[in-house]
Amino acid sequence: MTATINMQQGYAAVLCVLAVLGLEAAAPGECELTRLLQDKLQYEMRLQYMKHYFPIDYTVQVQYEEVLRPSNITRLRNGTVSEAALRYLWFHVSSQAVLRIREVLPEKHPSWKYTQELCQLFDALGEEYSKYRQTDVETVVADLVKLIHSAGAESRSKAVRPKALLDNCLKVMRMLYGVPCRWEST
Fold first, then answer.
1. How far is CA 75 from the centre of its chain?
2. Contacts with 57 (C-beta within 8 Å, 6 or more apart), sequence order
3. Rounded to an integer, what distance in angstroms lies between the CA atom of residue 13 and that of residue 37?
4. Could you tell me the pTM of the whole model?
């Protein structure tokens, strides 16, 4: 019992330090699931499943807002958007990108199983984010999430290579989770 109390006090102290530094802590479940995602998104796997198994210059149509790059995160951070809200946005954009890729694949495609495994990890991560409501995040993030999930927003679409979507997913994930989850540089 005392060990649990000490551990909770230690965790609370870490949260206070991170809050002072402006880095809201990621939940342990988020860290574990994003670590698994990071393993699945290794360069060799992205190259094989998202480039080599697709025709040359193959692209997927996505909404303009479904392309989330590190520069977007930096701009939002400078606009004082919270880290938790940025992770919430990353989750919605990245899971939507994986779904867009999977939509174009027939079930017998060599990349189908890989995208299915990514979808399962995002579904599990969705359980972690189910406690968030759009009212809990900054308006700019809530508006982007609504736009991403709105039907008929394809008017602002762009063609993006599948590998580029997952490259951005990984880069942004490392930006948002590397420090709070204490990942070593990879």
1. 17
2. 161
3. 28
4. 0.80
φ and ψ of 82, to 5 deg: -65, 155
List pLDDT tens digits, range 27-54. Answer: 668 899 999 999 999 999 999 999 999 9
| Residue 29 token pair | 């479940």
- The number of residues making up the chain comes to 186
Report residue 167 as tokens: 């490259």
